[in-house]
User: Which sequence fits this backbone?
């Protein structure tokens, strides 16, 4: 019997099909974490029918009823406890977790719209970030993030000099740095499953086993570099 470690993870899953390879990645990660004693919460965005579209309805009380400045209303809504209940529920899951895991297919050099909308509505101003409270001073410092995603392209199509360029510092920089790193999370090197719609079963099985091993080794995996605020002045202009 696995002993509990008291560690809690949140698995944010963005795929509509329960029999997809991305769902298999999600289940592989959940199994590996459970074997290591983690407690797991889930946000299966499609299954939840999560609403990804921000709107005035995200606030049961408005700071400014005449004009919606979304980030300012987020800050007021969190401080006053007047954010919509579905947003508050997702914030609570993130706050409770030491590790936040994302599983999704890459669509058009990006994450699925439902996952982008989850970030837009959940990563609220004031709590996740504010002013100079970003990167190493962000509201989610002390938490780690890990992403596992699938692509239709072959591995040689990504990287220096490739047709699509870099994944981590190019195609998905907006997500890995601009969302996860921006709010202060330590972003663990992600897992990419290439060419998945076209792989034979044995190759898919091998990819899932490689993912399982990486999850078991998360504590020793490299973390992506993020900007050092000490290298910038109070206006974020580079020093020197």
Assistant:
């Amino acid at each position: 019997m696995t002993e509990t470690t008291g560690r809690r993870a949140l698995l944010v899953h963005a795929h509509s099909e329960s029999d997809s390879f991305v769902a298999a990645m999600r289940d592989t990660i959940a199994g590996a974490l459970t074997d290591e004693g983690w407690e797991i919460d889930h946000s299966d965005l499609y299954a939840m029918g999560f609403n990804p579209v921000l709107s005035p309805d995200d606030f049961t009380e408005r700071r400014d009823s005449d004009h919606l400045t979304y980030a300012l209303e987020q800050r007021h809504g969190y401080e006053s406890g007047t954010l919509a209940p579905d947003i508050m529920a997702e914030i609570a899951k993130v706050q409770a977790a030491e590790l936040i895991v994302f599983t999704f297919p890459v669509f058009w050099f990006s994450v699925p719209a439902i996952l982008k909308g989850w970030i837009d509505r959940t990563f609220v101003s004031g709590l996740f970030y504010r002013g100079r409270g970003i990167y190493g001073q962000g509201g989610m410092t002390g938490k780690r993030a890990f992403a596992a995603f699938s692509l239709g392209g072959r591995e040689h199509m990504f990287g220096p000099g490739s047709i699509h360029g870099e994944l981590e510092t190019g195609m998905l920089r907006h997500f890995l740095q601009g969302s996860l790193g921006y709010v202060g999370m330590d972003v663990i090197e992600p897992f990419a499953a290439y060419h998945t719609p076209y792989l034979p079963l044995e190759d898919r099985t091998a990819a899932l086993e490689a993912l399982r091993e990486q999850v078991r080794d998360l504590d020793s995996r490299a973390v992506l570099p993020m900007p050092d605020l000490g290298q910038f002045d109070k206006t974020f202009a580079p020093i020197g």
Summary: The chain is about 35% helix and 15% strand. The chain has a mean pLDDT of 93. The two ends are 56 Å apart (CA to CA). Residues 201-216 form the longest helix (16 residues).
